[in-house]
Amino acid sequence: MARGRKPKHVLPDFVQLSDDGKKVLCQLCHTGTGTTGKGWMRKDSLPNHLKSDTHAKCHSEQEISQSIQRAGDRAMREESTMEETMDLVTLTSITQSAVATKEQVPRPSDEERAMWDDFMHCTEVFDVGVEHMLDAAEERKCLEREAIEFDLWHDSLPEQDLNIGESVLDELEREDVLTELLQNAHLDQPDAADLLNEELGGAHQPQTHDAWFPYESKTMFLLDTLDNLPRMKISNSLMKVLLWILREVGARDVPTLYRLQQVQATLRKTGVPTIQHKSPKGNIYSINDPRTLVAMDWANPTVCDYIRRYPVIPPDGVISEVYHAQKWMEVDPHVLSPMYDAGNCHYYIDELAVLKNGKFIIPLRWLEDTDRKVFADAYSVKFNSLSVASVDDSKMIRVQASDLEHNFLDLNDMQLALTWDSRTITAGYPARMPNPDRALAEGDPLYTSWIDVFGDDVSGNISKSYNKHSNIYLSHRNLPRKLLQQEFHVHFVSTSPVASVPEQFHGIKQAIESTHKKPVKVRHGTTGASIRFKIYVNSEPGDNPAQSEVSGHIGGNGNHLCRKCDAGGTKEVKQSDDGYHQLFKLGSARSGAAVLSEVKSQVKLACLGVAAKVDKQQTATGIKDAYTQFWIDHLIERARTLKKENPHRTDSDIQKDLLQWVEDRKSDIYNPYLELDGFDPVVDTPVEILHTILLGVVKYLWHGSHTSWTPHQKQTYSVRLQSTNTSGLSIHAIRANYIMQYPNSLIGRQLKTIAQVNVFHVYDLVDNTQFLLTKAVGELAALLWFPEIRDMKEYLSDIEIAAANVLDLFAMIDPSKMTNKMKLHLLAHLKEDILRFGPLVGTASETFECFNAIFRFCSIFSNHLSPSRDIALQLAGQELLKHRLTGGWWPTEDGEWRRPGPSVRNFIRDHPTLQAFVGWTSDKPLVSGSVRLEPLKRGANQKIESRKYVPWCQTQGAKAINASEDPNSQWTPCRSAIGRYGDNCLVGSWIFATSPFNRQESVTGRIVEIWSEEKNRAVVILDIFKVCGTRHKIFGMPMLARPDDKTTYIVIPTIDIEFLYNVQHDCVLAKCTASGKQALMQERVESGVFDAFIEHKPIDRFVINTHAFHNAHLLRASLDHSLVVPVLLYPPEERRAKHTEFAQTLRCKQAEIKAWAEQKKQLKKHESSTPAGTSSLSRKRARLELEAEAWADDTMTGV
């Protein structure tokens, strides 16, 4: 511009100039104040107005509003990006038809966005002191996010079950109240500063703290941990309250809820993928990838060192784990870990190898011992005079893997090609070299991971309203049982309210089989080496209906009631002498291949369009696969339709076309469990002791015992049960009044108590046969709860006798039980399942059943519109949290492996409360012989008193026959001592201990005192008892008595305590009665009401409870076998005759029932033919006369 000319001022964008150019309007202040017509001012007044407080306030409000708007838009963009990254992925190398890709959710249209803009800028806002522009922006963001999440942009909502909806509303009522309170208090809205900070921060992400990696801070770590605790699920509303409280008390690094969820979504990218599937029946469900769940164990330093890579040679023949038992020893070696890692080279089965002594072998199976030394079962290679090699497969040899020197590749490099004889070539040994798994491993060690797959139907509600979900969990069977019994090691896979367990397993099977072609690569948690693994299914624990569904069985109500054999038949067959006897033993064994063949035969029949033929064959064989039945019904209907549309076509022509359709879709039509390598659903569904024994046999026993009791008998039983000595039983506190108040609603833990102690309380409350059954069931149950088997032959003999006694006594009481109760017949299969899987306590489903509680928490906090996906995501987050807490490694996007910072991975070890919350138990063993001192007491002035010591001469130990302590030495009392097997032994506990007189023998007795010396020595004073040489006449158990009827004390070092066991007072001999009275405590105070209890008479005669589950194996090993061996009720030569007698009784009872039904039918017919005018008294007289006549006929005929 020219020098000296005044510059022309440009008006700001928010200032409007009038038509005459003399007035201006500040649009910021005009919009902010809501005035109309009074905002125009003279143009020369504009500079003063721009400097005024009113304009500055309006300008500040506009900047805040624009920042909030930008923050909201950015949040929506990030949310959209996050949704896209969280889209459910599909598995590679999986059939495309079985996977449903996620459909993109439509975004709001321009008109809809305009509607939201109008809503946000609306000036008619109810303002209670909160910035209304902030409210509008936040509500818009929340509504849009919910609209996308809940699929509200679609034309219609998915169909809902109204009953389920009602239950959902009931359960979420408290959540709705909390949300309303938050809204009224405006705590559900973020602070303006939070949104401004997010806006001003832009795309900047806070730096993670190395110690708390992958979290930004300790606060973020703790909040994520709190949000993912399995048994303490919290809602978003409650999390908002917690965040508000943290801000109010001035906590550092407190994020917004949106920031917390953003971090959690980022962490999930490196966690367990949630994969959406569409079953062949068209049902949508989601699964958490089982490959990742197993890989987490391998990558976790806390877990990986416990993983067993090979079958384990039982130490001293003691079988305690599934990898000691026959399945792992006898399964096809090609599904076991195929190689041995020698460090510098890998040895594979089926490949030639050379020992250090120069001998050639072909390894067939790798094994390891408890010290992890690896061995190989192998065939030796021999050479004739012409140097022609042959495989000596007549016998198998076992060699130590460390003796191997050269593998197959080494021999090839040395050009040592062998010339094989014709027999060896025909047998195929050279053709299997090299092992194909070597190429799959790509130079990494390759192992097999076995999993147990548990499937069952579970209610998704906490309320009584049943909301059925079919769930699948898994556990990693390469781990020892002590870990698998922890909730931490149960992994959720999938759930669905619509898809059945076999339907969901269809997608899981694809993930499992994908590892057979492409093993999963993972970083080992401790060594850091790359390894690969395949997955195979070990067993399917579950209740009997679920196991029948898995194995294609018709169910327990079918004529052939057993899924494992063909026992049973028609009603007439089962009631015949031969048919009834067959129910007490094994029938012809089924197999998965035979079941699949039968199902295919039924499908072929269905293609003819005649349902009756299929039904007849299913009834005759007992095979009716619930999964394939859907397709059978479809094929029958389709065949009928084709016949109707083309009457000229022959049945065989239609059948041929339909069979071709079936062949093209066979992987979708047949039960996926029946077509899985390494898994036979018939033999790999072991007898499950929770449902078959406790909820089956024990429940039948309990029902037969209590139903006939009078009120007085019930009171007597309740008092006796409550007075039970529970030391050494490891059960929950007994609530006898509850058990008698709800006797038909007992669950597993109460039935477990009944099985162990009922024999001591019902001896005079039931008849002799029922009492014999009580003893037999208790004896069998204790045997089945053995955690280890030291002598398999002796153990199986005891199991067979105990099971036979239970079956015979049930049949004696009610012969129809054998024909109607499938669980009783399954007792005949106990032996084969124990041989295959080891102690059945290792295949119990109690831990899986306990996990249902965690599932329910996730269910009630899900969105209830896509429950399968939402629950899977929640539980995937929990898996990721557990993995981080225990120091697990995970792969990043760039292929590197990371692990959490030291503060994260050490946090759980320092906080036992958190361990309990995540279901994890420390592997720190209890120190044998250690003691716990008596807690210090407070004096009258509430001050803690100092620990008191007493001289040895004032203890009961001074009276011991082996007392050798200084009488003046000082000792302090202890509360408990730890035994050799981890038992917590209290004063009054009964124990076995190493004898101080002969270290090769044991002594038993009751602990009188426990003392600890200042020199860290501890001893117990034991009141010695001897085991009598005969059994109790009523209970059939070993007895304890004082030696020479004198009280004798001995001193035992606590390190010599062996184990704890349960003993009951011989109340029958002492004639103890409920003569004691004790105050009833209510609300922690004495109520003035008194309860009766058993006062034991001073007779020192006790009974060893051999029905107790705790340490049952140790107790039987310490006692003479003649005192604990089950005694067969009927000798083998008489047993068949007894079964014939029971069958005759059954037929007579069935004839009575049939005759009575016919009489009732005739009576009803007679009443219907009576004239309408006949009085009710006349009709009653006629009915009584007919009943009397029928009774007389029965008496004459002997029916």
Task: Describe the secondary-structure layout.
Layout: E1 15-17, E2 23-26, H1 27-33, E3 40-42, H2 46-50, H3 53-85, H4 110-121, H5 132-149, H6 162-171, H7 173-185, H8 192-201, H9 218-227, H10 236-248, H11 257-268, E4 274-278, E5 284-288, H12 290-298, H13 326-330, E6 339-341, E7 346-348, E8 353-355, E9 360-368, E10 374-383, E11 388-400, E12 404-406, H14 408-413, E13 419-420, H15 422-427, H16 436-441, E14 446-459, E15 468-476, H17 481-484, E16 491-496, H18 501-517, E17 520-523, E18 530-539, H19 544-550, H20 571-575, H21 577-582, H22 592-606, H23 611-621, H24 626-645, H25 651-664, H26 666-669, H27 689-706, H28 711-722, H29 736-741, H30 748-757, H31 768-784, H32 792-813, H33 816-820, H34 822-825, H35 830-837, H36 846-860, H37 867-885, E19 890-891, E20 897-898, H38 902-907, H39 912-917, E21 931-933, E22 950-951, E23 970-978, E24 984-986, E25 990-994, E26 1002-1013, E27 1018-1031, E28 1038-1041, E29 1049-1053, E30 1057-1061, E31 1063-1065, H40 1067-1070, E32 1073-1082, E33 1085-1095, E34 1101-1104, H41 1112-1118, H42 1132-1169, H43 1176-1197
Parallel strand pairs: 11-13, 14-18
Antiparallel strand pairs: 1-2, 2-3, 4-5, 5-16, 6-7, 8-9, 8-12, 9-10, 10-11, 14-15, 15-16, 17-18, 19-20, 21-23, 22-23, 23-24, 23-26, 25-26, 25-30, 26-27, 27-28, 27-29, 28-34, 31-34, 32-33
Helix pairs in contact: 1-3, 3-5, 3-8, 4-5, 7-10, 22-23, 22-24, 24-25, 27-30, 27-31, 31-32, 32-35, 42-43
